[in-house]
Amino acid sequence: GILLTQALRPGGRMGPFLPLLASLLLLVPEASAYGFSNCIQTFWNPGSFLCIQRFLKDISSAVADLPANATSVNVSHNSIHRLPAASFHHLPQLQQLQLVYNQLEEIEDGAFENLGALDTLNLSNNCLANLSKGAFHGLHNLTHLFLRNNRLSTMHPHTLQPLGSLLILDLYSSHLANFADVAHSLQGLKKLWLLNLCCNSLSSLNSSSQLPPSLSRLYLCNNSLRAVDSGGPQLLSNIRNLDLSYNNISNVTSFAKAGLQNLSYLLLKGNPLNVIHLLNVSGLQPRSLDYSGLHVGNEGVNEVCKRLGKNPLKHLLLQSNNIRDLRNVSFSHCPPIQTLDLSWNKLRSLGCVGELLGKGQRRHLENLVVEHNLLNSLRYCKTHTLEVLKNISFRYNRILSVSYGAFSYAPNLRILHLNINNIAYLQKQALKGLSSLIELRLDNNLLTDLYESSFADLVSLHTLNLRNNHISVLFPRVFRNLSQLCTLDLGGNNIHQLSNRSFQGLRSLSKLYLDGNHIKKISSDIFHPVQKSLKVLDLKGNRLQYITKKQHKVPPFKNLHKLYDLKLQAQQPYGMKIIRPRFFQGLVALRYLYLSENKLLSISPDAFDDLGQLEYLSLADSSNGMQDLPPGIFKNLSRLRTLNLENVGLHSLTLEVFGNLSSLTSLFLAKNQLQTVNVSVATALGQLRYLDLRKCPLGCTCENLWFQNWLVNSRVQVVYLYNYSCDSRHQLGYVYSFDTRICFLDVGLYLFSVTSPMLLLFMLLPLVYHRAYWKLKYHFYILRSWVNDRWRRQDGEHFKYDAFVSYNSADERWVLEQLVPSLESSQGTFRLCLHHRDFELGKSIVDNIVDSIYNSRKTICVISRSYLQSEWCSLEIQLASYRLFEELKDVLVMVFLEAIPDRELSAYHRMRKVMLKKTYISWPLEPEAQRLFWTKLRKALKGTTEQEELVGKF
Ligand SMILES: *[C@@H]1O[C@H](CO)[C@@H](O)[C@H](O)[C@H]1NC(C)=O
Ligand SMILES: *[C@@H]1O[C@H](CO)[C@@H](O)[C@H](O)[C@H]1NC(C)=O
Ligand SMILES: *[C@@H]1O[C@H](CO)[C@@H](O)[C@H](O)[C@H]1NC(C)=O
Ligand SMILES: *[C@@H]1O[C@H](CO)[C@@H](O)[C@H](O)[C@H]1NC(C)=O
Ligand SMILES: *[C@@H]1O[C@H](CO)[C@@H](O)[C@H](O)[C@H]1NC(C)=O
Q1: Ligand whose nearest atom lies closest to the CA of 32
Q2: Would the CB of 229 count as within 6 Å of ligand 5?
Q3: In the chain, which end has fewer C-beta atoms inside a 10 angstrom radius, N or C?
Q4: What are 553-563's pLDDT values in tens digits?
Q5: Which residue has the higher pLDDT, 196 or 574?
Q6: What is the pLDDT of residues 488-547, one digit of tens each?
Q7: How far is CA 561 from CA 487, 530, 587, 876, in A?
Q8: CB atoms within 10 A of CB 654
C-alpha cells in the first residue's frame, strides 16, 4: 500500500529498515475500500447513487466524486440553488437524474452538457421561475422531463428544443398562464406523447402554433379554461386522451368546433356543463366521455344510456354524480356493460344489484365498483344471479354488517374487496356459496369473531386478508376448508393465543402474517398443520419474551423445513430479551431472519447453528446491554450476504465472531461503539462490498491507519467514508485523512530504537567479547563505583582501611608471613584489607573488590607472574588504576615480588601504562634491603592520595 511505497522511496528516512518494515506490512490486507462524500452506491445496482438529505448547497459537493460510469443519481431533498454549466460533465453515462425537493432557482446554460445518455430528469418541487434558452442543451436522448411544482410562468421558445427524444413532459402545478408560449416551445418535439399542464393558470387554449402530432395525452385539469376551441379546430385533433376536469368550461358549443373526433377518453368533471346538452350539441362520441362528475342525475343515466348505443360497453363511469339512491336509476336502456363504476356517490344501499340491470347487462357485468359511498349494510338478494360477475369492490364505505348470503347473486365471484369499512358483524353464512372466490379482503374493519362456518364454502380461496380488525380468538377449525389458501393475513389483531387447531386445514398456506398481535407463546404444535408448506412467517410486534436461557423442549420452529422468511422483530413491550439455545433449530431453509428491536440481553452462541442457508440477518436496534456478540455465533452462516448490526452496542469486531462470514457482502454497523475496525476481520470478509460505519466513534489513531490504505483500490464501499470525523476532543479532521506521518514516524522510530541497538549489539558482540570483555566489565564497575563513591564521600574522607591488598593466592604466603605482620602488628599503625579475611559474605566478589578499593586509602598490588595471569587481579589493578588516571587520586602502591622483564609486561598494557606513570617497589631477596623496603612501603601508604611526589625511586 501507500505505506510501503512511501517507505521505499529513495532517500526515505527508513532506508536501512526496509526489510523489517516490509515484513510488517505484509500483515496489512489486500482488501480495500472506497466511499463517497455524500452519496451511497446502492449495492444491488453499482451504477446507482443516492445522495439524499445531505443538506447540500451546491451540486458539486454531491456528484464531484462519483465515478464516470454512474448511471443513476438521486440528489433529492437537499438545498441546491443553482446548477452551474457542466455540472455533470464527468458523468457521460448518466441515465436518470433526480433533483427533486431542492431550491433550484437557476439552471445555467449547458448545465446538463455531456449527458447525452440521460433519459429521465426530475426537477420537480423546486423554485424554478424561468428556464434559460440553453438550460437543457445536450439532452438529446431525454425521454422524461418532470418539472412539477415549480414556479414557471413562461416558457422560452428555445428551451425545450434540444429535447428531440422527449416523450413525457410534466409541467404539473406551475404558474404557466400562456398556452401559446407552451405550445410554441414544443415545436420540434417530434416524439412528445404526454403533456401534463394540470394545476396551472391557463385561461385559454389560444395558440397560433400547433401541438406536435405525436401528442396523444393532454392533461389540462385544474386551470381556468372557459372554452376548448380557442386554438382552432386543429389544435386538439390528434389528442386521444384529454383531461379537462376542474376548469370553468360551460360553453358546450365550443366542443363542436374543437375537432375532438379522435378522442377516446375525455374527462370533464368539475365543469359547469349540462351533459345532455353537451351530447346533443358537441358532436362528441358519447362513448369517449367519462361521465364522472357531470351531474348526470338519476334520469340522466337513462338519457346517457340511450345515446351509448347497443354494443357492449367496456366502462360506464359514473363517479361523483351525487347519486343517492339506485331505486330510481334505470340501467335498462344501457348497452351491456363490463365495468360499472359508481364510486364517490352517496349511495347508502345497493339493494339487489341484479334488479337494477336489464337482462343483457346481467349477462355481461364483470366488475362492480362502488367505493367511497355510504353503504351501510349488505343484504341477502336471491333473485337475478349475475353469472359473470367476477370482481366486487365495496372499499371505503360504512358497511357495518354483512347478512346471510349477501353475495349469492354472484356465485362466480373471484375477487371481493370489503376492506376499509366498519364491518363488525359478518353473518356466519354471509359468504355462502362463493366457491370460486380467490381473494377476499376484509382488512381494516371491526371484526371480533370468526365462526367455524364463516369461510366454510371458500374452497378456492388463495388470499384472505383480515388485517387490522379486532379478532381476539381464533376458534378451532375456522379455516379448515381453505385447503387452497396461500396467504393468510391476521396482522394487527388482538390474538393472544394460538392452539394446535388454529390453522388446521391450511394445507397450502405459505405466507402467514401474525404481526401486531398479543401472542405470548409459540410452540411447534401451533405450526404443525402448516409445517409442510409454510414459507413466510411474520410474528413481528407480538409479546414473545424469554427471561431464562433454558432450552425449549421442542424448538418452536422445529418442523418448518420450508420456511425461508421469519420476522420476529420488535416484540412488545420490552423485546425478546433472550434468544434461547437452539431456538431456530429446524429452520434449514431459512434465508431471511429479522430480529431487530428486541432489546436483546443475550443470544445463545448456538442459536443460529442450523441456519446454513441464511442470507439476511438483522439484529439492529438491540442495544440493551448485549454489547459484544458471543464468539462463534455466526460460525455456520457461510451464505449470509447481509448482516445488519446497527445500534447493537458493539465495542469491537473480532475474528471469533465475524471470521466465518465468507459470503457477506453488506455489513451495517452504524451507531455502535466501535473505535477501530479490526484489519483481520476486514480481511476475513472477502466478499464484502458495502460497509456502513456511520456514527461510530472511530478514532484517528494509528490503529485505523489501514482504513486510509483501504482507499487504494475500489472494492468495499464505506458509506460516507469522507464524513467520519475524528472522535476526539483534541484532534480535528477526518478518519480518512488524518495525518498518518505520525504513524510512519512512530513505526520508523519504534523500529529504529528497537532494531538499531540490537543490530549494533549483534555486530559488535563477538568483537567486544573478543577484544574488550574486561574493559566493558570494568567500565561498568567503574561507573558503579564512581556513583557509589560520589555518594559515599560527600561527608569527607573516612577510610575503613589504610590499604587494600590485591594479591594472587599463589603469593598468599608472602602476604600472610611478611606483609601483614610487618604492617599491621609491628608498629600496629596500618589496617589492611585482605580478601580472605575482610570480604563480606554474601556480596559478590566484584562488589567486594570495588568496595574494598573505595574503602581503603591505598591499594597495594602484589605483583608476580601469577598475579598478572589472574583475572581478578587484573580487575583489581584496573579498578585501582582508574582512580589514578581518571580521578587523579594516587591510590596505587605496586610491589613487585619478582623481576618481570618488560617483554613479558608488554602483554599487560594497562599495567605498563601504570608503571610508566609511577614508580614501584620491588621485594629484595637480601634481608638488609628488606628493611628499606618496609620503610618505603610505609611511607607510600602514609602519603596523601592527592597528586604528590611519588615514593622512592627504585
Ligand atoms: C465502474 O467503473 C469502475 C472502475 O472505475 C469499475 O470497477 C466498476 O465495476 C464499474 N461499474 C459498473 C457498474 O460498470
Ligand atoms: C430519490 O430519492 C427520494 C428520496 O428518498 C425518493 O423518494 C425517490 O423515490 C428516489 N427516486 C428514485 C427514482 O429512486
Ligand atoms: C441515445 O439513445 C439511443 C437509442 O436509445 C442510443 O443508441 C444512443 O447511444 C444514445 N446516445 C447516447 C449519447 O447515449
Ligand atoms: C419526479 O418527482 C415527483 C415529485 O416528487 C414524483 O412524484 C415523480 O414520481 C418523480 N418521477 C420519477 C420518474 O421519478
Ligand atoms: C360559445 O362558443 C361559441 C363558439 O366558440 C361562440 O360562438 C359563442 O359565442 C360562445 N358562447 C358564449 C356564451 O360564450
Answers
A1: 1
A2: yes
A3: C
A4: 889 999 999 99
A5: 196
A6: 999 999 999 999 999 999 999 999 999 999 999 999 999 999 999 999 999 999 999 998
A7: 18, 11, 5, 90
A8: 15
Q: Is 254 in the pocket of ligand 5 (CB under 6 A)?
A: yes
Confidence at residue 8, expressed as pLDDT on a 0 to 100 scale: 34
Q: Give how far Cα 486 sits from Cα of 129, 181, 398, 505, 609, Å.
A: 53, 56, 29, 12, 29
CB-based contact 820:792 (threshold 8 Å) = no
Buried/exposed 609-633: b ≥16 CB within 10 Å, e otherwise: bbbeebbbbbbbbbbbebebbeeeb
Q: Are 289 and 317 in contact (CB under 8 A)?
A: no
Three-state DSSP state, 670:
coil
Position 342 pLDDT exceeds 70: yes
Run of H or E residues at 467: none
Question: Structural domains in the chain?
Answer: 1-30+627-745 (3.80.10.10), 38-175 (3.80.10.10), 312-446 (3.80.10.10), 483-624 (3.80.10.10), 749-791 (no CATH), 794-953 (3.40.50.10140)
pLDDT, tens digit, for every residue of 204-259?
999 999 999 999 999 999 999 999 988 888 899 899 999 999 999 998 888 988 88
- Position 291 pLDDT exceeds 70: yes
Give the sign of the dihedral formed by CA 672, CA 673, CA 679, CA 680. Answer: negative
Residue type, 923: W
Beta bridge partners of 922: 896
pLDDT in tens, 48-64: 999 999 999 999 999 99
Residues paired with residue 317 on neighbouring β-strands, in sequence order: 341
The pLDDT mean for the chain works out to 85
User: Under DSSP, is residue 787 helix (H, G, I), strand (E, B) or coil?
Assistant: helix
Q: Give the contacts of 693 (CB within 8 A, at least 6 positions apart).
A: 669, 670, 674, 677, 718, 719, 724
How would you label 763-781 residue by residue, b for 16+ Cβ within 10 Å and e otherwise? eeeeeeeeeeeeeeebeeb
pLDDT tens sequence across 391-413: 999 999 999 999 999 999 999 99
Tell me: pLDDT of 746 over 60: no
Question: How many Å lie between the centroid of ligand 1 and the Cα of residue 68?
Answer: 8
Element (H, E) at 319: none
CA–CA dist 321, 297 (Å, integer): 6
Q: Give residue-wise pLDDT tens across range 446-480.
A: 999 888 889 999 999 999 999 999 999 888 889 99
In angstroms, the first-to-last Cα distance of the chain is 77
Write out the E strands in 25-90.
33-34, 40-41, 48-50, 72-74, 82-83
- In angstroms and rounded to an integer, the radius of gyration of the C-alpha atoms of the chain is 50
| Helix axis angle, 18-25 to 741-792, nearest 10° | 120
CA distance 791 to 458: 108
Q: Tell me, using a 6 A CB cutoff, whether residue 635 lines ligand 5.
A: no
Ligand 4 neighbour 124 (Cβ under 6 A): yes
Measured distance CA(82)–CA(212) in Å, rounded = 31
Q: Give yes or no for residue 951 having a pLDDT over 60.
A: no
Please give the share of the chain, as a percent, with pLDDT higher than 90. 50
Tell me which DSSP letter residue 704 carries.
G
Instruction: Concatenate the DSSP letters of all residues of 627-638 into one string.
Output: -SPPTTTTTT-T
Residue 943 DSSP label = S
Give per-residue pLDDT as tens, 573-587: 889 999 999 999 999
Instruction: Give the three cell numbers for residue 125.
Output: 418541487
Cell of residue 799, nine digits: 577510610
Check pocket membership of 428 for ligand 5, CB cut-off 6 A: no
**Position 752 pLDDT exceeds 70:** no
Cα 371 from Cα 363, distance rounded (Å): 23
Q: Which residues is 696 bridged to in the sheet? A: none
Ligand 1 surroundings by CB, under 6 angstroms: 46-47, 67, 69, 714
Among protein residues, the one whose CA lies closest to atom 10 of ligand 4 = 122
